[in-house]
Amino acid sequence: MNVLKLILQHRRLSAGLAIAVVTAALLQVTNTNPAVSQTLALTAYEAPSDPGVDPEAGIWKDISGVNVPLSAQAGSYVAGGSVKMVKAQALHFDGKLFVRVSWADATDDSSTTKVQDFADAVALEFPQSATAAVPSICMGQADSAVNIWQWRADSNNGVRDPNVAYTNALVDMYPSTEALFYTARAANNPFAQLDRGAVQSLYSKAFGELHTLDFQEVQGLGTRTGDGWAVVFERKFDTGRAGHALFAPSTNMDMAFAVWDGSQDERNGKKAVSQFVNLSIAAAPAVTGGGDQTRTIIFAAGLGIGLVLIGGGLAIYGYRENGD
Amino acid sequence: MPDVYNWQLGRNMDYRFETGKQQRQFAAVFNINRCIACQTCTMACKSTWTFSPGQELMWWNNVETKPYGGYPQHWDTKILDLQEQANPGKQTWDPNKKDAKSAPYGTFEGKTIFETADGVNQMATGYIPSEEEWKAPNIFEDAATKYSKEGVSLPEHSGWFFYLQRICNHCTYPACVAACPRNAAYKREEDGIVLIDQNRCRGYRKCVEACPYKKSMYRPSTRTSEKCIGCYPRVEGSDPLTHGLPMETRCMTACIGKIRLQGLVKVGADGQWLEDRQNPLYYLVHVAKIALPLYPQFGTQPNVYYIPPRWVPRNYLEQMFGPGVQSAIDAYTNPSRETLAVLQLFRATQEIVFSYKVEPGPKTMELTVAGQKRELFNDTVVGYDSNGKEIVRVSVDEPLIERPDRFTLNTI
Ligand code: SF4
Ligand code: SF4
Ligand code: SF4
User: Fold this and answer.
1) What are the residues whose beta carbons fall under 8 Å from the beta carbon of A6, sequence distance 6 or more?
2) Is residue B191 scored above 50 in pLDDT?
3) With respect to CATH, is domain B3-352 assigned 3.30.70.20?
4) E-strand spans in B354-409?
5) Most CB within 10 Å of its CB: which of A119, A195, B211, B406?
6) Chain A window 259-288: which residues touch B at a Cβ cutoff of 8 Å?
7) How much distance in Å is there from the Cα of B275 to the middle of ligand 2?
8) Pick from A116, A181, A208: which is nearest to B131 by CB?
9) Per-residue pLDDT at B13
10) Where are chain B's structural domains?
């Protein structure tokens, strides 16, 4: 069934649309950006064939998505929040979830070779387990952790030693290049290892308490689009391991987005975040040809319902320690 | 935010963490007057810790020519400028608000790097120097402010430069530690050495941004930040040479000019040095008061102290070392018998000297310097290790040794 028709059959949502228009006008006048995406809905339909991790794959052109507004991490955070919106699409196939995220970013920041260079990045955040309590959107909480999948533009390129990437750029010869002398690697820092793929799966239950999961099975790939990035994440619904988000057809799940613009020195807590988006994994196959209208209506409906929850959202949104 | 005491500023200040956990503090005194800029210290550090891929631009120890040189370029003037912009015209000292013990140099009335920061986006005011700024570690080597045709004379040379030897200051209130959102940078309880946990670091470079001395550095091959580790295995005594006793670091022991003395001092619950009259570092910093902190106004309470160069304009030195400059130079130029004896301990042994004793010797010379009568005594200074065992004995007069005649043909 066409999503557009489905929505239009529900009159309450039409009323929601009206409220949303008024709200939008109000927000325009008061110049408020409440990051109302907490009520947006993203549906992962079943794909007819394996979409793969290529963000350019044709299937993504045929399915609808949602535009998720982003804003700086915390109310008093003066910096961060360079990217204002991401478009999210989702599919599933053969027990695997695929999420495609695209956003506008004029600069390609995919090298971290220079001290002043930070990488573009995007992350998806899910509750680590299907707990009753929805974890704090800001990096989780003690009794309710989050599972974060972070794609980074530098990892996407394959992290290489600068002396391999730029042979003899700085010195002609090294006395020894054994693993021991790459201190962070030798100290088993997962972040410092080579060839760990473009995406890291992490968990967090507080600011400053981000850890890499021992088992990595999120695949991902990013490509430059005309005006920014498109990234696809792929993971099995069920990894069979504790700490990894669990998905299943005909269920709903909260998810959130974060985007970093490297050219704006964004890293760690300096980033743009969304509120929770409701991801539903549909049993039905993907619909095609939804187009912009569908997206706009889903967005507007979300905005309307979001009004009720803005208070709660902004409360979470208040000052938190600058962390990640 | 906890309120902590900074004796170098003579006042309390805000810092992200409480102090008081350290038992001992890594500290050193560098005598700028004696440095010949041979860079042996620099190479000692490099060849021990930073010779691998990704560490090419990393010099945990560097020696730069002031006033123009700097590694990274202009690091100090840039921070001074950021601080001045944040608190225009008010970055000043009141040298009269003094207390012999808790505020020996007066009170800093301006703001520290912690106090000018917003506390949200930055814990300390700072910036990330670009790669280009790290690429010429010895830029402007030996460049003087001008050519003095008539020559130069004390107390202030008309054309001048001096060498500034720099390592991480293992600060009592480290900005790198305050800035790290993951608490990967930390200060060790046993000796106050500041380290970056290479397992936790995720390369945010907040420490690189916050350290006012720019002694936290980025390593692209591991995407993490690294810094001077205070040669902690040596300080812990795990080098077989000293049989389990604390040993001075590589950059200290290699020093050709004998300008460096490093050790461990006792600290109290408030992070301040406990009275330890016979510790040579305590004596030089707190009793003789000839060694001063580098840019104390930044507020990190650095633990490397400098005997300022005698020939440099005092306003420049005061900006760099605070209001104690003139009295430190006076005390160094006219040293007491004890000061002269303690200065002999510089580079007399690799083991850390925890205490000393001066054995008086005979008067060997009377002379006049700058119109003042002076007497020299051949006193002997004896240094002891952490167990109170004698490890070194040096006299003020260098003993004269006559070589037997079979060496007359300069066989070396
Ligand atoms: S000098 Fe810099 S890196 Fe060293 S402890 Fe102080 S703030 Fe940290
Ligand atoms: S203390 Fe050790 S690690 Fe630090 S600069 Fe000196 S030699 Fe290098
Ligand atoms: S080894 Fe000593 S004399 Fe030589 S540059 Fe270093 S501090 Fe100066």
Assistant:
1) none
2) yes
3) yes
4) 355-359, 363-369, 372-377, 380-384, 390-395
5) B211
6) 265, 267-270
7) 27
8) A116
9) 96
10) 3-352
